[in-house]
């Protein structure tokens, strides 16, 4: 069967609960065993403003992608693109995305932009269609939960010895404090990458309408100081992944340009998580490119905490609809 015939044979519909196992079948080799789909698919099905599109060939699910309406309905964020491994490279992803675009244009004419995140270096053709909005660099670490306590103690000692003055004590924010701060002029203008809130690959404008999206995520918010912070961080709830039978994954996004402040809130996030963590941990921390080398150097240790991957990026892309 030719590639053109493959594309013509794909029929599109919305995902349902009964598609779960087939969706997992096309996710099995994704993201080094860190695929989030097993724990997000059911939540996504019921999330306000989210549509999950499925591509089928006969009775088989061969592709999926999600579209989340954000920014008060002005933007759609595409997430979770998956194509069956034996059908990749045949144009199915492109046809699925055109179907989604046509649906959004017809049913949500108020949407003016499409936004997405990419971890692999996009092709030149992608940059013809999309503009780069923001970039973060990922520091990825892994360890047994029992070794994280040693790492935290080592990191705390190192940061204390490096400080030239009495450092601020990081503050855990309640939801109201976090929402007030993330929309403040100081944070928006000085800390957010290109004035974009990036939470676990979800790029949001700092507007009131997006606060409800953030509330759903169960985030832990920590700043280096409560008023006009130099770093603000948000951490996802750890979730099980297939990398190992007892593996947990979580993501920390840190916004700020001061290495000392970024390190302080990074440490504080780990300290907050420590009591609840078990098993094998893989955690990603997303930071401004200029502080990544210093954070990586700071995280070299003697506590059996290893780098999971080397340098990798998260690019936020956008195009007009």
Short recap of the structure:
The chain has 321 residues and is α+β, with helices and mostly antiparallel strands. 32% of the residues lie in helices and 31% in strands. The strands form two sheets. Strands 1, 2, 3, 4, 5, 6, 7, 10, 11, 12, 13, 14, 15 and 16 form a 14-stranded mixed sheet that branches.
Task: Give an account of the 3D structure.
Helices cover 32% and strands 31% of the residues. The chain is of the alpha+beta class and 321 residues long. Strands 1, 2, 3, 4, 5, 6, 7, 10, 11, 12, 13, 14, 15 and 16 form a 14-stranded mixed sheet that branches. A two-stranded antiparallel ribbon has the order 8-9. Helix 6 runs antiparallel to helix 10. It is globular. The mean pLDDT is 94.
Task: Give the SSE layout.
Layout: H1 3-8, E1 10-14, H2 20-25, H3 37-45, E2 50-57, E3 60-70, E4 75-83, H4 92-107, E5 113-118, H5 124-129, E6 131-144, H6 145-162, E7 171-173, H7 175-182, H8 185-190, E8 197-199, E9 202-204, H9 211-215, E10 220-223, E11 232-235, E12 239-240, E13 247-255, H10 259-273, E14 280-287, H11 292-298, E15 306-307, E16 312-320
Parallel strand pairs: 4-5, 13-14
Antiparallel strand pairs: 1-2, 2-3, 3-4, 5-16, 6-14, 6-15, 6-16, 7-10, 8-9, 10-11, 11-13, 12-13
Helix pairs in contact: 6-10
Uncertain segments are none
Distance between termini? 33 Å
Quickly count the helices.
11
Round the Cα radius of gyration to an integer and report it.
Answer: 20 Å
Helix fraction bin: 25-40%
SSE arrangement, N to C: HEHHEEEHEHEHEHHEEHEEEEHEHEE
Query: How many individual β-strands?
Result: 16
The helix/strand class is: alpha+beta
**Coarse morphology:** globular
Largest beta-sheet details: 14 strands, mixed
